[in-house]
Amino acid sequence: MDILTKARKRLSRFLRVFFKKKRSRIGIYGPPNAGKTTLANRIVRDWTGDALGPVSEIPHETRRARRREGVTISNGNGDSIVIDIVDTPGVTTKIDYHEFTEYGIEKEEAVKRAREATEGVAEAMHWLREDIDGVIYMLDATLDPFQQVNIMMVGIIESRDLPVIIVANKIDLPDASPGRIKSAFPQHPVIPISGLEGTNVDDLYEKMIEFFG
Amino acid sequence: MIQGVQLDLISEERLARLTSMEKIRLILDEVMAGNIVVLEKGLTPEESSRLIEMTMMEISPDGFAGIEMETYPARAQGGGLLARLFGGGRESPSRLTVIGPANQLKMLRKERDLISAWVSSR
Asked: Is the pTM of the predicted complex or chain greater than 0.90?
């Protein structure tokens, strides 16, 4: 860790103690099916032994923001952060209940899920405007990072001056290309991981301590 | 009867005269009527955030399914420390933006400097 980073962390700790800043709320954002809940579960399980929510291959499985308070993340050097993890519904500009019927869900249930998903997206946007101090932006590394929703969301996060770590997830899959994500968002740190298998999550924890601490 | 899609190109000057909420309402009303809207200058991040929220409120089963929206990625920001301190370097310049109904406008290909899209009639 360089001198500037150390100095920034010391100043940040001092300001937090001086102003009695509440612990940071870190939102996990991204499009549907990027692996947000898988990562949230892994973080919460690794550091508290618990879990946050169910995961599924069906999009919009998370339709309400879920928060886990007081998660302490530490490293071997004695550095640590205490954060609230907020797992948010996948952000999109379109929701069609037929997305759910394609997975064999009955129409009535699919319509209900679609309505809950629209409410969930609006809720996620509201959290971002009002209640989030930092963002982990999850992307599926097998997909095109230039999707409009990613460009819009990163722009919104930047405009709010929130610290953001971009996670290139699903590197366990053969089509994964974290390099494409790095070239799409060169202004932000990009950490390639497999949330499912746990590959490189220690790098993410290290970056979270450095970035959100 | 000839089938077609209405395309509205809205100038930067016209957009500048509208408040954020007027812009969002104009876009949603046009798109919900099945039209494609092209903005000479795109929305601010705050307006984009509100547009996503309001779009979600308008979605209905077998009716409006949301929007498809395409713009170029923001240009690399210059300005240095002073510009950032005084706000000059933070606001991403919003660029030409096309917005349409999700079930009519499909992106075919998108790169840093090229957007190729397909528009179908209802």
From this structure: no
CA separation for the pair B57, A61 (Å, rounded) = 19
Each residue's pLDDT tens digit, A91-128: 999 999 998 888 888 999 999 989 999 999 999 999 99
Q: Does B47 touch chain A (CB under 8 A)?
A: no
Of A123, A138, A124, A120, the residue nearest A41 (C-alpha)? A138
Is A169 contained in some domain?
yes
* Domain contains A114: no
Instruction: State the CATH number of the domain containing residue A194.
Output: 3.40.50.300
The answer to whether position A111 is within a domain reads: no
B73 at the A interface (CB within 8 A)?
yes
Question: How far, in whole angstroms, is CA A28 from its chain's centroid?
Answer: 2
Of B56, B66, B111, the CB nearest to A122: B56
Chain A and chain B share a number of CB contacts under 8 A equal to 88
Which of B31, B39, B52 to probe the A interface (max A CBs under 10 A)? Answer: B52
Alpha-carbon span A133 to A23, nearest angstrom: 9
Cβ within 8 Å of residue A56, ≥6 positions away: none
